[in-house]
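During the second half of the funding period, the structural biology subgroup turned its attention to how the target accommodates small molecules. The most pressing case was IDC, which had performed well in the primary screen but for which no bound structure existed. We therefore specified the complex as follows and requested a full 3D prediction, including the ligand pose.
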Amino acid sequence: MKAWNVNKGNMRKWIGKAMLGVLCACGVMLMLPWTVKAATAVETNGALKVEGKKLVSQKTGTEVQLRGVSTHGINWDVGYPYISKAAFKTLRDKYSVNAIRLAMYTTEYYGYCDKGSAWESKETVQSTLKSRIDTGVQAATDLGMYVIIDWHILNDQTPKKYQSEAKKFFKEMSAKYANYDNVIYEICNEPNGGTSWSDIKSYANTIIPIIRANDSDAVIIVGTPTWSQDVDVVSKSPLSYDNVMYTLHFYSATHQQSYRDKLQVALDNGLPVMVTEFGVSEASGAGSMNTAEAKKWLDMLDKNDISYFAWSLSNKDETASLLKAGTSKKSGWTKSDLSPAGKWVLTQYNKRSGNTTVSYEPAKVGKITLKNTKGKKLKITIKKVSNATGYQIKYSTKKSFKNAKTTKTTKTAYTLKKLKREKTYYVKVRAYRVVDGKTYYGSYSAVKKVKIRK
Ligand code: IDC
């Protein structure tokens, strides 16, 4: 075995080189953390499955939590313009979103089953909607994001009403996307108007086998009675299929502790739940915002690895919209393009997913001025940095800052005392910011020096 016949000296050199290589690679990664591309959610997890209460990666067996955004109705002009790779990429890269829900209303304005006032033929309306779904699925797939195809029943109240249309639709969708690991089917958004769990069950027992015939292991989401609130009721009598989850929807200015209690009952009974829609608004999508309650919800969902999707990716002038009312940007949104709800929700997403591309570091301190005042004192004035919790001052009598001392202040002026006369002091300052108990530092200012004469 010639290859192993190396003398020790060469071996040592070789190990040295290899270690240097590793060190360099680590160094580059440390220096450029923002440019290191993380694997996408789908690359990491592949197809999903349901195990007990949890959504799990078929590839790794570990739990997967989706943080998603729901479109507004893809039938609506405040919804479909955001079905694009650019828009989804912004959500993925800037706001830690790993899944999209494509909400296709079945009734109302351009509804799939009841086109309302649309003048186009039903065939045209349906093919337009299907092509929007395809655009969305392809964009999500290219970006390694999961995607829900949502049969968005609402004013039709019971999924039984358009069951025959649903059968055709899901047959076609599941055939088309059978080989897509990232596609999830949601078969009835929000049954309401007194639709019972047994009505929904009978619908689900019709639709699920149709999907399964094409796509044997797809995850399927089933709506629950009373606008997808009664997960407690469902948990007493779930369906008998594998890879099924049940929907809970909440709007935090309306649905609070008593609804979380329903979720707790469902979890205690072992029901797999997915929150395919939530808003920080009232149930109407409008009205006031309640982020304190929304935080309680997200804390509970995170604790239980439950996936959630925010309603909705829209610039419609209503509280729940994530984009600022009337903004014309279709992607590339910065914080200032988001609505108050959007800012809150997407900041939570970044925090909760530990997105390393968001930085809490304050900006570099632009300017400091030093003034020796009477009594061996040195007054430091710092140019204010926005969002800083305070400033850290580092000073030394050596240019190299050897044996430097540090001190902190929350003000933009600070006086160092008991300094040594006739010594030159070197000073630099950096801002810091405390977020959730963690301190983040900005870059140091340029070094300034002053000789203590008085
Ligand atoms: C709302 C939209 C609103 C639209 C209305 C149509 O936000 O712009 O006019 O639908 O009826 C749901 C539904 C979802 C609702 C949302 C807010 O699933 O379609 O969207 N909501 O009311 N359930 C609870 C709240």
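Two results from this model are relevant to the next phase. The two ends are 78 Å apart (CA to CA). Residues 167 and 207 are 6 Å apart (CA to CA).
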